[in-house]
Specification:
This protein is of the alpha+beta class. Helices cover about 35% and strands about 30% of the residues. The relative contact order is 0.11.
């Protein structure tokens, strides 16, 4: 039996058409799966990038001790400390509230704590050359 005779039978044409549809459907499904995988990889990269961007815009300060000294004179001690505040984020920020907490132990063993806010007057503490606590206002992005 040759090919022309085989196609003349009604059931064979339908079987061949069904086979071609099945093959084309499988190819289309495979291409769709590849495209879906690429889309998932791209979406994952975009999500990680968005998370990193969000982390860079969250308010955050880093505080470093730049200079510190203790001076004793006439039985009194003076402690001075300089802190540097940096803003490593991608958004401007500001220091809204600052408080200095001084804790020390007296000779008798009792512990003393003094809290000084930025807007408070010295009240019993002796400022050396200026205010007890200087607070900068705005701290721009990537600024110190």
């Amino acid at each position: 039996m040759h090919a022309g005779h085989w196609l003349k039978q009604p059931g064979n044409v339908l079987a061949l058409a069904s086979l071609l549809v099945a093959i084309m459907s499988a190819i289309y499904a495979w291409r769709s799966a590849v495209a879906a995988k690429r889309s998932a990889v791209t979406a994952d990269k975009a999500y990680k990038l968005a998370e990193a961007q969000d982390a860079r815009t969250r308010p955050k300060f880093t505080i470093n001790l730049v200079n510190c000294y203790l001076h004793t004179s006439n039985g009194h001690q003076r402690l001075a400390a300089e802190l540097r505040v940096s803003n490593p984020t991608d958004s401007d920020n500001a220091i809204a509230v600052a408080e200095l907490v001084i804790a020390y132990q007296r000779r008798g063993g009792s512990e003393m704590v003094k809290r000084v806010s930025a807007d408070q007057k010295p009240g019993g503490l002796r400022p050396a050359d200026g205010p007890l606590l200087q607070v900068p206002g705005p701290v721009g992005m990537h600024q110190t």
